[in-house]
Amino acid sequence: MEKESATYRTITQPSEEILYKERKSKFYGYAFPVQSEEEVKSIIEELKKKHPTANHVCYAWQLGVTDISYRANDDGEPNNSAGMPIYGQIQSFEVTNILIAVARIFGGTKLGVGGLISAYREAAKIALENSRIEERVLKGQLQITFDYEEMDTVMRFIKKHQLEIDSQELHLNCKIIISVPKNHFRDILSKLKAHHKLEIKVLS
Known about the structure:
The chain is of the alpha+beta class.
């Protein structure tokens, strides 16, 4: 469980376009890294422009690591025949901060709900298989406030524990914001608080 809470999986860049065919219908699949719902909207609009003859552009997305939000959209296909099968692949591959979209161009033969579920699921799966998935370390942020004379102590601590500095203000009164891997967060926080001349604030 600790490993799950300390890391997450996502994709680093958009996948190549994939094509899955089922009884003359064409299903074009895509995977995109996303950070917001606004990004999703603009990508879907671009895909609809790219495929003007597509009858449906169905998709699913998931955002967040500890606080997860998601949506599945059938775009006019029968209820739960497209968006949810796509979302099922996001869950199966255990990825987040991702959008999977599938544009369907009708080939003249109806597939039925079962056929649609199978086709959208397969297109989403192939799009994910063609994506570069990487595991990232989940991090939290701490703010350290201290007098300039404590600079050496703070910098030695940061170097010793191989922590990342996100920002720093170095004056007579200094402020440094650091990123800490979640699986070491409590330990680092405890050690910093042991330095009584440092003021520590948890940011995330």
